[in-house]
Amino acid sequence: MKKHTGDKPHNCQVCGSSCFTRSQLEIHMRTHTGEKPYSCEACGSAFTTKQNLQRHVQIHSGEKNHSCNVCGSSFTTKSDLTRHVLIHTGEKPYSCEVCVSSFTTKSDLKRHIKIHTGEKPFSCEVCAASFTTKSDLKRHIHVHTGEKPHSCDLCDASFVTRHELKLHIRKHTGERPFTVKKPYACELCSSSFVTPSKLKIHTLIHTGEKPYSCEVCGSAFTTSSTLKVHIQIHTGIKPYSCEICDFSFTRKQNLKAHLRVHTGEKPYSCEICGLSFAWKKTLKAHMKTHNREGLSRCTNIKKLSSPK
């Protein structure tokens, strides 16, 4: 009945949050105290709730009982699968009331809203830098400690995040990211897509239609997401900030590319000489040097072989 009435009689004396039950308040208080009473016997990781521990244990067992009917991806929990399915449907039920952004999960929306409020409750004790999430602060602290806790078993490389390590390991194994089924094919070209909505967006390339227009400058776009990114030019909002320096970006892809300055990652390799580069455009510029060398070599051969 409290869910219907909205009555939350149990209040937190630290931050003012209110909860339906006393047990919910006890779990909430652990965010302030840092208490994590549930520990994993395999790796020692600790958690605030028993459910989070149970979900974590499945990482060690490798158990993934919840599979996606569209692409075949499997997940440890039903909630993870439910979030994943939104990728295929294109549904983003959580909308920001300040700007036009929308999100697949409530937690993503909460994190986004802090961009508008400017709230950064997690501060670094070393340099006073502040962050919107606790995980962002944890990653930042590695800058001061120099710690890179994720090490490669095949070479001496180590990384700040697990994601960076996964990308690095592919260089050794030659493994490519999981390729999903693409059942929706374009009738005009050989392209195929995971969802019908993505196919619909793709067909606009052939028709030339741009249904999404900017109310400020009149520019037109094929997708609403491209329009959202464009609007940030007018608003000046740059929601993707670098945790290491002061740079911020309008697009997540631009932030990912920028992070290579700090990580030293060079994923683009030249097939001719083996040199590696952080950005694709740098590799393209480099490839032109080989083309020029090839042309000059051919010119020299012609000069030597031609009769005097």
Layout of SSEs?
Elements (H helix, E strand, L loop, with lengths): L1 H4 L4 E2 L6 E2 L2 H12 L4 E2 L6 E2 L2 H12 L4 E2 L6 E2 L2 H12 L4 E2 L6 E2 L2 H12 L4 E2 L6 E2 L2 H12 L4 E2 L6 E2 L2 H12 L10 E2 L6 E2 L2 H12 L4 E2 L6 E2 L2 H12 L4 E2 L6 E2 L2 H12 L4 E2 L6 E2 L2 H26 L3
Antiparallel strand pairs: 1-2, 3-4, 5-6, 7-8, 9-10, 11-12, 13-14, 15-16, 17-18, 19-20
Structure notes:
With 308 residues, the chain is α+β, with helices and mostly antiparallel strands. Strands 1-2 form a two-stranded antiparallel ribbon. A two-stranded antiparallel ribbon has the order 3-4. It has helices spanning 2-5, 22-33, 50-61, 78-89, 106-117, 134-145, 162-173, 196-207, 224-235, 252-263, 280-305; strands at 10-11, 18-19, 38-39, 46-47, 66-67, 74-75, 94-95, 102-103, 122-123, 130-131, 150-151, 158-159, 184-185, 192-193, 212-213, 220-221, 240-241, 248-249, 268-269, 276-277. It is built from 11 helices and 20 strands. The model is unreliable at 297-306 (pLDDT under 50). The termini are far apart. The protein has a domain at 1-63: Classic Zinc Finger (Double Stranded RNA Binding Domain).
